[in-house]
Amino acid sequence: MSLPFVVVGAGPAGIAAAEVFVDAGCEVVLLDENTAPGGQGYRRLGNESDKRATQLLGASSEGSYRAFHARADAVTAKVDYRPGTTVWHVMDNVLQLSRGTVLDEIEARAIVFATGASERILPVPGWTKPGVYGLGGAQTLLKRSFAAIGKRTVFCGSSPLLYLVAAQYHRAGATVAAVLDTSPKAGKLQALPGLAARPGLLAEGLRSRIALMRAGIPVHDGVSLEAITGTEGVAGLSWRDARGRAQTTDCDAVGLGHGLRPESQLAEIAGAEMVYDDGLRTWVPSGTEATAVAPGIYTAGDARRIRGAEAALISGARAAAAALKDAGVAPGHGAIPAESALDAHDRFQSGLRKAFAWPRGAEAVAALPDDTVICRCEHVTAGTLRTLLREGRAEGDPNRVKALSRVGMGRCQGRFCGAAAIEIIEAAAVPTSGTTSEPGRLRAQPPVRPVPIFSNPEEDLS
After folding, report:
1. Angle at 236 between CA 233 and CA 237, to 5 degrees
2. Are 110 and 147 part of one and the same domain?
3. Is 356 inside a domain boundary?
4. pLDDT for the residue numbered 164
5. Are residues 43 and 68 in the same domain?
6. Quick check: 304 and 322 in contact, CB under 8 A?
7. Which of 151, 291, 311, 445 has CB 3.0 to 4.6 Å from 345, enough for a Cys bridge?
8. 10 Å Cβ neighbour count for 357?
């Protein structure tokens, strides 16, 4: 019996990869952690017939949303689609799965990891209070339930999502107290040549910002976030404007984010070589969509490079075509996009990195008080990490720091705290050595998601 081609993730990259496998007449298993296709960008709206759905999407996005879901519906009808299924480990092309209390495994002929991206957050004192959400989480709640995270919300950080999510909240009738962008305006101006590679997206972003300003919503660039205040929950946000003047904005909720990072833990565990991407300030799988990162292992979409939904469709198709070629399977009749089709997307993303830069090293973490929680799962503070580094017990090794402090050992496995922890480690190392180099990383380890401690064999995972 031949083994199936397995695609992990049913966002744009995963659906495009599954299409190519189906076109070639292959058996396909499509594993989706969510309950419906779409990923984050095309997440299924709670009630598509509700007029609020169109308001959330905006006129320019509604067409692409509906076109994607038409493709997804056609593909999932032709494959073994398993929604609500988590992949928590992979070894020798055997994937370990969980759904509810059921544990199972599946062996694959080849695997395309189209696992998308996760949010990056630079901690702020008070960021663990009830009422503080990641920008993606705030967007998900709005899309899924037409519910806002608060009655009066501040959106802050350094991300193009700032303006998109704030505009969606405003269109939905929620009160947006302010948009506080930590990236300076000068960086956005310098980024314009790159952003011009995708003029439609650039115009959409500008429209969102202008709409917010025309509505009287304060929009500030180059701010410094000082603390999220309140006793039992969020009561306000203290910050400094670009001139260093102290400001306070009253609010009962905060949407916080600093861009995205590839969700590449499974690829790393499967054997992918990881390389440092200085522009993205993180480690990513090596190679391209058209090459295996390990025998029988391919990565696509934002799981390998942050490029957005349209590029993910191209990337997923190219990864699946590479898997077919390496497996000696004849392709179908559909055309596979050329690598050059990604060029404009790469230039646009280069511009976004300049416009919404992730703060580096000492700049990112020097102002954080020692009692600031870095790892909320294990309640590890900035002071705990600094003490380990100052005493020399961790020798500047991120994974030694992890072993001694438990940073990154909680439920999120370092997805949210890892970037900030690395910046603290690097900031402590630079004064000692006087030089900078590629920062280390917290190595991915299974399980990459929480799994049940028992399995119910009476349930059927498929």
Report:
1. 120
2. no
3. no
4. 92
5. yes
6. no
7. 311
8. 19
Is residue 367 in some structural domain?
A: yes
Average pLDDT for runs of 10 along the chain of length 462: 92 97 97 92 70 62 86 97 96 94 93 94 93 94 89 95 93 95 93 95 92 97 95 95 96 95 94 89 89 96 93 97 96 92 94 85 74 93 91 84 90 86 80 57 88 65 54
How far apart CA 263 and CA 142 sit, in angstroms, is 23
Phi, psi of 217 (to 5 degrees): -85, 125
Q: For the chain, what is the domain count?
A: 3
Do 416 and 123 contact (CB within 8 A), yes or no? no
How would you classify the pairing of strands 86-91 and 80-83?
unpaired
Looking at 77-171, which runs of residues are DSSP E strands?
A: 80-83, 86-91, 94-99, 102-107, 110-113, 117-119, 132-134, 152-157
CATH number at 58 reads 3.50.50.60
Assign 3-state DSSP to the chain and report helix, strand, coil percentages, each to 5: 35, 20, 45
- Determine, yes or no, domain membership for 451: no
What is the spatial distance between Cα 367 and Cα 460, in angstroms, rounded to a whole number?
A: 51
CA gap 121, 138 in Å, rounded? 14
245 and 331 housed in the same domain: no
- The type of residue at 176 is V
- In 316-396, the DSSP E strands lie at 373-375, 380-381
Q: Which domain holds residue 167?
A: 132-258
Contact 7, 86 (CB under 8 A): no
Instruction: DSSP for 11-68, please give it.
Output: SHHHHHHHHHHHHTT--EEEEESSSSS-TTTTPPPS-TTSHHHHHHH-HHHHHHHHHH
Same-domain pairing of 232 and 332: no
Residue 181 shares a structural domain with residue 100: no
Domain boundary among 210, 240, 258: 258
What does the alpha-carbon distance between residue 382 and residue 286 come to, in Å, rounded to a whole number? Answer: 31
Contact 153, 132 (CB under 8 A): no
250 and 146 together in one domain: yes
Number of H helices, E strands in the chain: 14, 22
